Amino acid sequence: MTGLRARLPIIPTLVVGIAVLLMIWLGFWQLYRLQSKDALLTRIAANPSLPEMILPPHSTDQSLLLRRGRIDCAAPLSIATEGAGRSGSRFVATCANGAKIQIGTSPDPHARPVWNGATVRGTVWQAPDHRIALVRWFEGHATELMLVPETPLAGLSPNAPPDPGSIPNNHFAYAMQWFLFAGTALVIYTLALRKRLARGPAHR
């Protein structure tokens, strides 16, 4: 046993060991997130039956998704153009208090809707977020919420209704990937180590 320890490459073994432990930790972390996401989706599924709420500005509370909401938008500061797939473009107004409303869609990406604000009722959903998932994870900030009215504003076309199925819940697949990576790293390193030890001291 002492001879084997003496022949083991210390630094590569430590690096592989730490990497494998990290991947296993990430796998269990994804399983934890799976439980949290399941609980969140269960809560969201019950939201349409809850009373209407006033959507606070800059809210990132994902448990409010699909709630009926209201925003008093007296003076929109800006109207941003966002992609909307087959619908062409969607237009998101930012109110003076920071609240966001998707006022409607248009097949014309160059449309410039004019809207002076009003009290708007609709469904709470996720505002456009152009950050990649890895950046959101490191920053620790969830996607901001907005209101999606059923009746479009400013003469625009109707909004597509929020789709609960678009909320990703692939944490189990991610967990299995991390466990697979860890197992693969162990197998590859074990085979490489056996080959190294089999060559003997004269070949190292």
List keywords for this structure.
204 residues, alpha+beta, 4-stranded mixed sheet, 3-stranded antiparallel sheet, 4 helices, 7 strands, 39% helix, 20% strand
Structure in words:
The chain is built from four helices and seven strands. The protein is elongated and about 80 Å long. It has a domain at 52-166. The protein is of the alpha+beta class and 204 residues long. The two termini are 19 Å apart. Helix 2 (10-46) runs antiparallel to helix 4. It has helices at residues 2-7, 10-46, 133-139, 171-199, and strands at 53-54, 68-73, 78-83, 89-94, 100-106, 118-126, 145-148. The longest helix has 37 residues, at 10-46.
How are the SSEs placed, and which strands pair?
Layout (H helix, E strand, L loop, with lengths): L1 H6 L2 H37 L6 E2 L13 E6 L4 E6 L5 E6 L5 E7 L11 E9 L6 H7 L5 E4 L22 H29 L5
Parallel strand pairs: 1-2
Antiparallel strand pairs: 2-6, 3-4, 4-5, 6-7
Helix pairs in contact: 2-4
Number of helices: 4
Q: What is the approximate shape?
A: elongated
Uncertain ranges: none
Please give the number of β-strands: 7
Largest β sheet strand count, sense and barrel closure: 4 strands, mixed
Helix content: 25-40%
Report the C-alpha radius of gyration, rounded: 26 Å
The N- and C-terminal alpha carbons lie at a distance of 19 Å
Major sheet strand order: 1-2-6-7
| Helix-strand topology string | HHEEEEEEHEH
Query: What proportion of the residues form beta strands (DSSP E)?
Result: 15-25%
Helix/strand class: alpha+beta
Q: What is the averaged pLDDT score?
A: 85
